[in-house]
Amino acid sequence: MPSQPAALILAGSRGGDDPVATYAGVSDKALIVLGDATMLARVIGAVRDAGIARIGVSANSAAVRAEATRFGAEALAAEAGPSASTAAALEALGTPLLVTTGDHALLRADWIRDFIVRVPATADVAVLLARRDAIEAAAPGSKRTYLRFADGDWSGCNLFYLATPRAAQVIALWQEVERDRKRPWRIVRRLGPGLLLRYLLGRLPLSEAIAHLGRRAGVEAVAIAARNGLAAVDVDKPADLDFVRLHLDQARAATRT
């Protein structure tokens, strides 16, 4: 597997006022300051510290694109949604491509390196997910959306690895899932009647579900389990921002003692 993929940071707006940006008193969520850096700068820094030199930032805000450029990333125009933006970035940046989001405020370089090295050489696409018990241990009080499988309840970590050009084939499926990201039932319904029944009976493992969805798109897809439940924390609502700020304050206090 190539050791130097490119990276895409999705930092576009869904339109209208962002409640988290409004709560923080800034124009764009990615520009919220945490400690001494904006959220976007923190994500760019984590990606670069993971050894990835070429970084694109997809955004429809001139201020966010300027922040991306200030930190040495390539500013890319956002399309109509994350999946469409990723499709455009695939053409510009190629594969392998790590994909994450501009609101992944706690992202760490070691999580990225660990994720990439664990992607099988045969995989076209990989997704990082975290089990509920890992999230609750690392981020007590953080509210996540879960999918329930035979091997536990899982939540996404906003980290994807598009390993080969065939990964472009998952974009259409991603667009469907994107529309239903807050309605887990509609996502699992795409498994088909046989696997759906196993899911309802609590007998379907996550890995099998991801592999099946990949086959539907004509690719080999794998799920990688996050070692740290904090990887599932993004800043999707004001309560998430409060949690991240508290966590960072506690981490800074711990380093001073």
Fold blueprint:
Layout lengths: L5 E5 L8 H6 L8 E2 L2 E2 H11 L5 E5 L2 H9 L3 E4 L4 H12 L3 E5 L7 H9 L7 E7 H7 L8 E3 L2 E11 L8 H9 L4 H5 L4 H8 L5 H12 L3 E5 L12 H19 L1
Parallel strand pairs: 1-4, 1-6, 4-5, 7-10
Antiparallel strand pairs: 2-3, 6-9, 7-9, 8-9
Helix pairs in contact: 4-7
Report a brief summary of the structure.
Helix content is 42%, strand content 19%. It has helices at 19-24, 39-49, 62-70, 82-93, 109-117, 132-138, 171-179, 184-188, 193-200, 206-217, 238-256, and strands at 6-10, 33-34, 37-38, 55-59, 74-77, 97-101, 125-131, 147-149, 152-162, 221-225. It comes from Sphingomonas hominis.
Q: Which oligomeric state applies?
A: single chain
Q: Could you estimate the helical fraction of the residues in percent? A: 40-55%
- Global structural class: alpha/beta
Stretches where pLDDT is under 50 for at least 5 consecutive residues are none
Quote the beta fraction: 15-25%
Rg computed from alpha carbons, rounded to a whole number of angstroms: 18 Å
Q: Residue-averaged pLDDT, rounded? A: 89
Total number of distinct structural domains:
1
User: How many distinct beta strands?
Assistant: 10
Descriptive tags:
257 residues, globular, alpha/beta, Spore Coat Polysaccharide Biosynthesis Protein SpsA, Chain A
